[in-house]
Specification:
This protein has three helices and six strands, in the order βαβββαββα. With 136 residues, it is an alpha+beta fold. It has a single domain, classed as Ribosome hibernation promotion factor-like (Double Stranded RNA Binding Domain, 2-Layer Sandwich). It comes from Pseudomonas taeanensis MS-3.
Length: 136
């Protein structure tokens, strides 16, 4: 997984980029095989002026074979903004993985995506109805 860090209105030193990159990787380590790239944008919304929630961290993750996911977190401190955004991304990826691993079948119960339908009679009945209607 490749992590890119971009800064706006914040001095983007190598130390800052390394710290942000490692903080995000620590939170998203479980999803390393799923992700191709993670882009982190950190900025100071009010430039040199201080204010509440003026530090912003946006994380965009690109899962293999899926559209990118983006989350944002604002805080008064840059560390809190990065941790908050990384945690939101972790939750978003957990949600995505949950949708990929299981699906709801017509019976209303959960079924693993790799599992075949257990009720072959329903499938046979459907096929018989299609043949009766002349739709092979």
């Amino acid at each position: 997984m490749q992590v890119q860090v971009h800064t706006n209105q914040i001095e983007g030193s190598a130390r800052l980029q390394e710290w942000v990159g490692s903080a995000v990787m620590d939170k998203l380590e479980y999803f390393e095989e799923l992700l191709t790239r993670v882009v982190v944008h950190i900025s100071d919304e009010n430039a040199q002026k201080s204010g509440p929630d003026d530090k912003r961290c946006q994380i965009e993750a690109r899962p293999k074979g899926h559209q990118s996911i983006s989350v944002t977190h604002k805080a008064a401190d840059l560390g809190i903004a990065v941790d908050g955004a990384a945690e939101k991304m972790r939750h978003a990826l957990e949600h995505l993985m949950g949708r990929l691993e299981a699906k709801v079948v017509s019976t209303g119960r959960m079924q693993e995506a790799s599992e075949e339908p257990t009720d072959a009679l329903l499938q046979e009945e459907f096929l018989e109805n299609q043949q009766a209607l002349g739709k092979d």
